[in-house]
Design goal:
Layout: E1 2-6, E2 12-16, E3 28-37, H1 39-45, E4 61-69, E5 81-84, E6 87-88, H2 94-97, H3 111-118, E7 124-125, E8 142-145, E9 153-154, H4 161-164, H5 170-180, E10 188-192, H6 196-207, E11 212-217, H7 220-228, E12 233-236, H8 242-249, E13 257-260, H9 272-282, H10 291-299, E14 305-308, H11 321-326, E15 330-333, H12 338-350, E16 362-365, H13 369-377, E17 386-389
Parallel strand pairs: 10-11, 10-13, 11-12, 13-14, 14-15, 16-17
Antiparallel strand pairs: 1-2, 3-4, 3-8, 3-17, 4-5, 5-9, 6-7
Helix pairs in contact: 5-6, 5-12
The structure holds nicotinamide-adenine-dinucleotide (NAD) and zinc ion (ZN) (2 copies).
One zinc ion binds near residues 40 and 61.
């Protein structure tokens, strides 16, 4: 089959690789009909995520048609149309039974390495380094889906792929980000970033009762999407001081809830912390550019909540835990427990409450994925979200 393979920093290509096959009786194989590129893929593309190996197949936002099931699969059959969560979960361990699927205890075959680094191992993820399982990803013609009875959600209506594809990641991620923000009715929610995850967080913040949503970025078309599709007020961090503006918009109190939908590759226009991060990352002394999480903690209202869907990878210095403590902030983060949200969020799509396809700007064949990675990373050509069709 053809698949998008990683070969090093900024180096991906579509190669011919062996087709996947059933390895466990609980596996299914799906033929991919639509798959997307995520901001998380950029952390791999940009060389921030360790334990990638030459030839690894990327991609964790995929859907398609079941073409084969293992002998123990009972809920899926050949021909079913499914969306696959990026988190691989067993459904029956301590964490899965608490619906904490991204903490599944059993799906990372390299748990020993992850434990050494983090104390405990999170779940395996599709297409996301060997530290997180070494599973082949879904930017390919076919995908092996472990625990096929637990993850994939069947699409039984005739909704087009583009409307349901993002149940694999960014819609649940934006929703969990808003849920983690503990929004109370009427709260002012500030969202850092206007990328696809942020756009879903903005939509979800309204669903969960926000009174006001303020979105922060510097890319004009992303800010415009936050204003039009997201009904948010916006701040361009290249043109406005974020702290001063948020304070003046909230009579000095600061936003009640802050969502960092940027993560470890934040840009900044001069702050000393950001310059130090950049230098350290360039000489391999650090992995993360943590400007946004620092700024969110600084700007957040006292006793507010900072929700962190943005991915961080390594150790962060100059982390203002003292500010967070003194202001009584709650911080929440995590890879999304996707399986917890697929059913209720599909129901919202089916009810016409939201059509997540509004973020899509580029539709391309899989063969054009290498160029699309660059276009998406460099925010060229108005690119906000790329969907690939194998
Ligand atoms: N927790 C999860 O399970 C999960 C799932 C999916 C994605 N993510 C993470 O969410 C983050 C966003 O993903 P995405 O697909 O939207 O990525 P993206 O790269 O398209 O969006 C990031 C946005 O942040 C903006 N930005 C950069 N610096 C900023 C700053 N200082 N202030 C405000 N905005 C700034 C960029 O201009 C860009 O629009 C990534 O870190 C990704 O890895 C997490
Ligand atoms: Zn993702
Ligand atoms: Zn589990």
């Amino acid at each position: 089959m053809r698949a998008l393979c990683w070969h090093g920093k900024s180096n991906v290509s579509v190669d011919t690789v062996p087709d996947p096959s059933i390895l466990e009786p609980t596996d299914a194989i799906i033929k991919i009909t639509a798959t997307a590129i995520c901001g998380s893929d950029l952390h791999l593309f940009d060389g921030y995520q360790p334990t990638m190996e030459d030839g690894d197949i990327l991609g964790h936002e995929a859907m398609g048609i079941v073409v084969e099931v293992g002998s123990a699969v009972t809920k899926l059959k050949k021909g079913d149309r499914v969306v696959v969560p990026f988190v691989i979960a067993c459904g029956s361990c301590f964490f899965c039974t608490k619906t904490l699927f991204s903490c599944c205890d059993t799906t990372n075959p390299n748990a020993k390495d992850a434990r050494k680094l983090m104390g405990h191992s999170p779940a395996g993820l599709f297409g996301f380094s060997h530290l997180l399982g070494g599973y082949s990803g879904g930017q390919a013609e076919y995908l092996r889906v472990p625990h096929a009875d637990v993850g994939p959600i069947k699409i039984e209506s005739d909704l087009p792929d583009e409307q349901v594809l993002f149940l694999s990641d960014i819609f649940p991620t934006g929703y969990m980000a808003a849920e983690n923000a503990d929004i109370e009715p009427g709260d002012t929610v500030a969202v850092w970033g206007c990328g696809p995850v942020a756009q879903m967080a903005i939509q979800s913040a309204w669903m969960l009762g926000a009174g006001r949503v303020i979105a922060i970025d510097r890319v004009p078309e992303r800010l415009a999407m936050a204003r039009t599709a997201g009904r948010a007020e916006t701040i361009n961090f290249d043109e406005q001081d974020v702290y001063e503006t948020l304070n003046s918009m909230t009579q000095g109190r600061g936003p009640d809830r802050c969502i960092d939908a940027v993560g470890c590759e934040a840009h900044e226009t001069g702050g000393i912390d950001a310059i130090v991060d950049k230098v350290k990352a360039a000489v391999m002394l650090g992995t993360d550019r943590a400007h946004v999480i620092r700024q969110a903690i600084y700007c957040c209202r006292k006793a507010g909540t900072v929700s962190i869907p943005g991915v961080y990878i390594g150790m962060i210095d100059k982390f203002p835990l003292g500010q967070a403590m003194a202001k009584g902030l709650t911080l929440k983060s995590g890879q999304t427990h996707v399986q917890r949200y697929t059913r209720p969020l599909l129901e919202k799509i089916e009810a016409g409450e939201i059509d997540p396809s509004f973020v899509i700007t580029h539709r391309l064949p899989l063969e054009e994925a290498p160029g699309a990675y660059k276009t998406f990373r460099d925010k060229e050509d108005g690119c906000i979200k790329v969907v690939l069709k194998p």
